[in-house]
Structures are given as structure tokens and as C-alpha cells.
Amino acid sequence: MLRVGASRLARAAAARSAGSRLHLRFKTTDTSGALGIKEALGAKIPAAIADVKAVREAYGDEQLGTCTVTQAYGGMRSVKAMTYETSLLDAEEGIRFRGLTLPECQAQLPRAAGGAEPLPEGIFWLLLTGDVPTDAQVHALREEFASRSTLPAEAVAVIDALPTDMHPMTQLNAGVLALQPQSAMAAAYAKGVHKSTYWEYCLDDALTLLAQLPEVAARIYRRSFHDGSMTPSAAGELDMGANYARMMGFEDPKFDELMRLYLTIHADHEGGNVSAHAVRLVGSALSDPFLSFSGGLAGLAGPLHGLANQEVLRWLMEMKESLGTTKMTKEALTGLVWDVLNAGKVVPGFGHAVLRKTDPRYTCQREFALKHMPDDEMFRMVSMLYEVVPAVLTEQGKVKNPYPNVDAHSGVLLRHYGLTEARYYTVMFGVSRAIGTLASLVWDRALGLPIERPKSVTTGWIKAHFEGKK
Ligand SMILES: CC(=O)SCCNC(=O)CCNC(=O)[C@H](O)C(C)(C)COP(=O)(O)OP(=O)(O)OC[C@H]1O[C@@H](n2cnc3c(N)ncnc32)[C@H](O)[C@@H]1OP(=O)(O)O
Ligand SMILES: O=C([O-])CC(=O)C(=O)O
Asked: What family does the entry list (predicted)?
């Protein structure tokens, strides 16, 4: 009996490893003595699992936070109720990717020759593994992406069938769903692989999605705003930022640098923001990374989240038009800001749910503008708004943070280089947000996080529960 049991176990183990070979398509394993991305991550997972186990054993019964009735009605603001490993946001200082501030990422991560901005592949490596990659590792990852970059013909057909006046974010989401049939995770689950291997399939899908997303996004841009013709992908030769720029039709090396900066700063913003949380939530049902990321994109398309970058540029253009030949002064802009508030609307690009100071992502972009386009007229307007809006919002007395966020600045940089179609801007945010949310999703599966299912209550329940306590 015992021998039969042992051989059954051996057969199950063999089936598991055959299953994991069947659908995984990692190209690089070991390059120039540097571990490939799967091996580098795989080497980290056992210790991370042990760490989480030890933390749960030591502190499992401690209170992380509380949730008041106000917080339950108020978007759960400040409730500490989830973990998220790839980045952490400080209300005053802003985001850190695996412990590094954005300027530290700019200083420490591999860059293009002669460039100053991190390569997007390096940001993914950092977020996923927690380590600053070497040039060889970034190169190997680029090759890995290149080997997966060809879009399936069926997905191209889906994208090409979409109305060109459909919002680009809706097109992007349809494009991502059209990539989903390639999912290794979905196929592996259907086959019944062991749950300890889910992360491998999740990583496989994350790499495929990241490899194909820039071309999907560029295709949407070319179809919606140009004649649909497109420079073929040079994945493998160019980094993700430059390749995306080229496929959209931009040739200026400074725009390549802007793309690298853009893809870096929008990648991740800890776990509770709408897009990251949606990816986590959908993924917790073991929906594959394509489906999970689609959920995140749907949230990013909202005007209080990623779509704010489109809204900012639209508003700046409206202000420019309404000023006409009137000189742009602080007084004139102050009046226009009050007009927005008096109309019961939000001032796009200002305020934040967590941050309480100027967003360092805004500051990075401002520094880029000061270096490369100090005399740009729209940059001057953005700079003047920086002096005007916080005072107006403070005087109005409602907002918790009157300072600008990332979206207040990105549009004028893109516009300066000729990317003037504001309706497209959130698509670029989406391409970047895939880097962080997918890295995190791989960890969700590696750590075996369960399905998310917080408890909700009704207003009647609250009344009944607290009746007599006051
Ligand atoms: C990548 C990103 O997602 S960054 C954020 C991008 N979004 C924007 O830029 C849109 C403009 N900003 C906002 O709408 C908000 O500041 C948010 C959504 C970012 C954060 O919302 P909250 O955490 O609820 O902000 P806060 O607690 O300060 O809100 C208090 C009040 O001030 C209002 N408020 C907040 N920001 C603004 C603003 N920029 N303009 C006008 N009113 C504002 C809120 O709507 C709320 O009003 P209410 O009490 O009538 O409902
Ligand atoms: O953190 C948030 O709530 C919104 C944000 O800035 C982001 O997701 O980049």
C-alpha cells in the first residue's frame, strides 16, 4: 500500500513538472552569469513565503488599523487592510519602489546610452525581484519580451474592428481582452496544475502582456489619430520606451527619454489605488493576468484616477482659449480656477487620496520640463497654476491636499513633442501601470493570497448595531 502511495505521489510530481513545462515559454534562463527573470524571482520566493509566515505568526493578532463608520462610507480612506510588496507610499514623501525614491531609481537603474531616465525593463525587474538589475539582466529581459512580442492575428483583428472614435481606453481594454486566449495561467488552471506553481504561469502571462501591450497601445494611437499605418516593432533592438515611441511615430530621442520617464513614474503607487486594487481583487478569484489587468484598466479610465491626465490638458486648452489675447496672469488664472469650483467640478490634477504634499512624480516631470522645454507656453501655464491652485483650494477649505498630482503635468510634456491627442493620454498611463500591477500580481500568486472578500454591512445594520451605545 505504502509503495503504491509513494508512486502515486511521484506520478503527481512528474505530472506537475510536465504541466509546468507544457505552457511556460520562458526564453532566458541564465545570461552572462546573470540569472534570468524567472530564476531571479524563483530564488526569492521561498524566503519571502517564510518571512510572511513568520510575520503572521508573530503579529497575526495585532491590530493593523481600525475602520470607523465614517471610513466605511468614505472609500475606506487610510484603513490599513491590505499588504502590497512592490511599492509603498508615504503621505509626505511620495512613492518608493522597493524602498527607492524616484530620484534614487533615476540614479541607480540602468539607462539607455547617453540617457538620464531608467529603462522600463529595469523598473519591472526592480519591482518584481526587489533588486536593482544589472545591464545584462535588463538586456536579457528585453530579449525575453522580444520573443513574446508578436501580436496574435486574432487580437489584431479585434483591435482593427473597433470604431476609431471609441475612447482609446475602451479600445485598450478590448485589446487586452483580445490577448487573453494566450493565457498560460488559464490553460494551466484548466489542466489542474499544483497551486504552488501558479506564480510561474502568472509571470509567464505578465511577460507576454507587457511584451505586447506597447504595440496594442501604439496601434490604437495610429488607428484613432492617424491613418492606421505603423512603424513595425523593433522589440529587442530598442527598449520598451523607445520602441513604443517609434511605433507611435515619434523619432526624437528626447521623446524616447520622456517615454522612459513616463513609463517609470506611472508604474506603481502601492496597493490601494483603484487600478492596482482592481487588478489584485480580480486576480484573487484566480482570474488570469489578462482579465485582472483589464479590471485595473477599467478603473484607470475614470476621471478621478488615470483619466485626470486627459482632463488636465482639456482644461488647460479651455483656459488658453478663454484667455484669448488677455495676458496670462495669476489673477486671471485664479478667476478661472474659481469658475471650476463654483460650477461644482473638481480641479483636475490637484488633490490626492493619500498624498499630502506635492507629488514627487509631478516634481520629476517639472524637472524634465525645466531641462528640456523651459520656454514652452503650456509649461508656463502649468507652472503658474502651481502657484495659484493650492491657494484657491486652501481658501475653499474642502480638500485635504491642495497640491498637484502626477496628472497635472504629464499632458504638457507629451504635447510639447507633438503628442497632442489628450484622449489618448490615459492609454500611456495604462501601459506603465501594467509594469507595477503585474509584478505585484505575480507576488500575490507566489504568496498564495486568498480570494478577497471583505465584510459589508447595511446602514440598517449600523443603526441596529450601535443603538443604545450612545
Ligand atoms: C493617478 C491619480 O489617480 S492621481 C488623482 C487624479 N485625479 C484628479 O486629479 C482629480 C481631481 N482630484 C480629486 O478629485 C481628488 O483630490 C481625489 C479623487 C484625487 C482624491 O479624493 P479624496 O481623497 O476624496 O479627496 P479629499 O478628501 O481631499 O476630498 C474632500 C473634498 O474636496 C473635494 N476635492 C478634492 N480634490 C479636489 C479638487 N482637485 N478640486 C475640487 N475639489 C476637490 C472632494 O471632491 C471632496 O468634496 P466633497 O466633500 O464635496 O465630496
Ligand atoms: O494612489 C492613488 O490613489 C492614485 C495615484 O496617484 C495612482 O494610482 O498613481
From this structure: Belongs to the citrate synthase family.
